[in-house]
Amino acid sequence: MSAEPGTVRPGGRTARVRAAVLRAAGDVLAEQGFDRLDLADVARRAEVGKTTVYRRWGSVTGLVADLLADMAEQSSPREETGSVLGDLRANASLVQRTLADPRQGALFRAVIAAAACDERTAGALRRFYEVRVAEWAPCVEQGVARGELPAGTDARAVVRAVSAPLYYGLLTSGSVPDAAAAERAARAAHAAAAAGVFVTE
């Protein structure tokens, strides 16, 4: 079975083309939203041929899927501070800074809005978060091994619990989360994990 257009990294001589197209797509999403994303406009902004964009990504949703895959690959690696709480604080701080960034925050809001009504975009967004949660889950697993958290703690659930209130606050209030919100989110997730809330075994 062939891969869905836009979900596989184009190879060969065109790495620069991919980077330019994804950058242009991100700019349009951040500036105008998903419903204004147009492959011909992206090609113009990236200064590449329309045929190239249509051939490689095939559709707007294919382009967004590749953009999210690239964002997951380029996201900052996890920080390991030596304690679960320190690691969760680092994770919360990264999420907060991303959502507070004028371009990245607007881009995520546009993609989340699109995912609510487009299943392919929703699937691409889920894959993005699967990658990011998997990147940070070892911090929790190491905390379990050190005895900071109870055995059987669901590491991925703890990581999701850190970022969930930050996204929820952004989407329901329109307010960008600040550093204090990130600190509360990390402490709340850590307290719940330490109390055994996320034990599944």
Properties at a glance:
single chain; mainly alpha; disordered N terminus
Concise overview:
The N and C termini lie far apart (37 Å). The longest helix has 28 residues, at 119-146. By secondary structure, the chain is mainly α.
What does this structure look like?
Helix 1 (15-32) crosses helix 2 (39-46), helix 5 runs parallel beside helix 8 and helix 8 (155-173) runs antiparallel to helix 9 (179-194). With 201 residues, the chain is mainly α. The longest helix has 28 residues, at 119-146. It has helices spanning 15-32, 39-46, 50-57, 60-74, 84-100, 102-115, 119-146, 155-173, 179-194. The protein has 2 domains: 12-71, Orthogonal Bundle (Arc Repressor Mutant, subunit A); 77-194, Tetracycline Repressor, domain 2 (Orthogonal Bundle), CATH 1.10.357. GO terms for molecular function: DNA-binding transcription factor activity; transcription cis-regulatory region binding.
